[in-house]
Specification:
Length: 112
C-alpha cells in the first residue's frame, strides 16, 4: 500500500496503480455536478437526490414530518425518510450513481 491515495500491485515487472477515490470526495464532486442538471429534471428525481443527499450528510431523519398544508417540505421529508435505512456510505454511492445517470440522460437528450 502506498498510503491513503493509492496502492500498488507488482505483477511480473509491471507495477499497476489505482487511485482510490474516497466516497466523500466523489460525493462532493457530484454534489457540484448536480447543479448542471437541466431545469426539466423531474420532481421525482429531484426528491430522490434530496433524500439521498440528506441521508449522506445528516443521517436518519431528525425532524418531525411537516404538516399536510406544507406539501413541498412534506415531500422532501418523505424522500429523506424513504432512504433512512441506508448507511451514509450507501446513500453517497446511490447519490453519485443517480447524478451520473441523470447527467448521461441529459447529454443523450441534448445530442438527439
Amino acid at each position: 500500500m502506498s498510503g491513503p491515495l493509492g496502492f500498488f500491485i507488482r505483477r511480473g515487472s509491471v507495477i499497476f496503480s489505482w487511485l482510490l477515490v474516497y466516497p466523500s470526495e466523489e460525493f462532493e464532486e457530484h454534489a457540484e455536478k448536480v447543479k448542471k442538471l437541466p431545469e426539466n429534471t423531474t420532481n421525482e428525481n429531484k426528491l430522490i437526490l434530496y433524500g439521498l443527499f440528506k441521508q449522506a450528510t445528516v443521517g436518519p431523519v431528525n425532524t418531525s414530518r411537516p404538516g399536510i398544508f406544507n406539501m413541498r417540505d412534506r415531500a422532501k421529508w418523505d424522500a429523506w425518510k424513504a432512504v433512512e435505512v441506508k448507511s451514509k456510505d450507501e446513500a453517497m454511492s446511490d447519490y453519485i450513481t443517480k447524478v451520473k445517470q441523470l447527467l448521461e440522460e441529459a447529454a443523450a437528450a441534448a445530442s438527439a
